[in-house]
Amino acid sequence: MMILGLVKWMQPVHGYDVRRELLSWNADKWANVQPGSIYHALRKLTEEGLLRAVATEQVGGRPARTTYEVTPKGEDEFDGLLRGHWWQVEDTADPFAAAFSFLPAMPREEAAAALRNRAIQLRARVDWMRASLDSNWLRETKPVHVGWMFELWSARAEAEVAWCERIAERIEAGVSYLPAGLERAEGWSGWQERLPDRPFDAK
Amino acid sequence: MMILGLVKWMQPVHGYDVRRELLSWNADKWANVQPGSIYHALRKLTEEGLLRAVATEQVGGRPARTTYEVTPKGEDEFDGLLRGHWWQVEDTADPFAAAFSFLPAMPREEAAAALRNRAIQLRARVDWMRASLDSNWLRETKPVHVGWMFELWSARAEAEVAWCERIAERIEAGVSYLPAGLERAEGWSGWQERLPDRPFDAK
DNA sequence: AGCGTAATAGCCAAGTTTGACTAAACCGCG
DNA sequence: CGCGGTTTAGTCAAACTTGGCTATTACGCT
């Protein structure tokens, strides 16, 4: 719940402001906040006494908007949460890893092609972020640490590009997927490797 | 929904088998599957016609267990999902990035310390994974691509270690957080930097 | 002036996820 | 043999998330 944090540095705000700010950060992608959840979160935080509704104004016939502020209790809670995420490394869900764990279910050719494609997509992102870092737009209108986040993301992505290419080569080389010393042992029938049955299209 | 995939290569299985397999992979951490969601998923997939309940046996007075198999429709669906995740790079939620975006709310000293700490934690993970890669246990009992996943994770983590140290230095050096050219401009009052008010303990 | 599009503000029902809970049966061991 | 701990198998209510919906006003353009 880092909605709390946003309210804290924009207060007093109403829900729609928060939503706009989040969308302008593209935060729906890398934070865990889709616009739909904002209002629910605001109400829940208010119930818990972390926020306080300050005013409810109505402009014309539109939905009334409620403005919120952070309570002292809310500040403490936020500090605690923030510290937690800074000091503790959490392992985060990775849908690609999930898919990769089913490697044997992909025909070798396609797996290699997909990895190469992934490398290209990631490289494009890296290039885009590097370009942004050099741009005046970012340097002159965004806090510096936004750029630092870009650096983190591109560093990670660059490491992954190298990995994709390395693994693609191994797959093409025909390395066996089975554990060493079990090439023809029992108990791995479920891992029957998938042969290319129909051709695939690189999209 | 990669439960489907697991059922596919373990079939016929019952929920508890799936759960055990997932836990043995520590998949609750990096895939998006907590044990609690398995049974719901199985039922939903069955409703959708992707799975088929094969049998329901009762051993003693324990809860009856239902065994599932994948239908042809389910195989197709799985192939589709799998391809989707292989070919498409998704950006994944990153709680640390969310926390980092509130950098100005952390006292400089603590931010730097936390980053250094993070580097240490990540380094430990890398070391552990590297050691596993050299171990016979992994080489002889796990499919090779499990090791490849470890390589991916350590590559990413290593990149992040370097980043943490670099950024910690910049923070300690006192680099301003404000956009270039706005050092004393208006409109950033919310970004008032937080000064160290109380000491923190490195845990 | 008229009309289509975008922005404003928020609600909501339906779907998902989750941690905690049950309750019997098996295992080992003093 | 009894008894505490673990394993087996799964349920469930509560919390959370989400995409889509509403209805009004402002804006741009011809």
Number of strands of chain A: 3
Strand fraction of chain A: 5-15%
Spatial gap, N to C terminus of chain A: 37 Å
Largest interface: A-B, 79 and 79 residues
What is the mean pLDDT of chain A? 88
What sort of overall outline of chain A do the alpha carbons produce when their principal axes are compared?
elongated
How many domain modules of chain A?
2
Strand order of the largest sheet of chain A: 1-3-2
Q: What is the overall number of helices of chain A? A: 9
Low-confidence stretches of chain A: none
Which sheet architecture does the biggest sheet of chain A show? Answer: 3 strands, antiparallel
Radius of gyration of chain A over alpha carbons? 24 Å
Give me the secondary-structure category of chain A.
mainly alpha
Query: What quaternary form is this?
Result: homodimer
Query: What pattern of helices and strands is seen along the backbone of chain A?
Result: HEHHHEEHHHHH
Helix content percent band of chain A: 55-70%
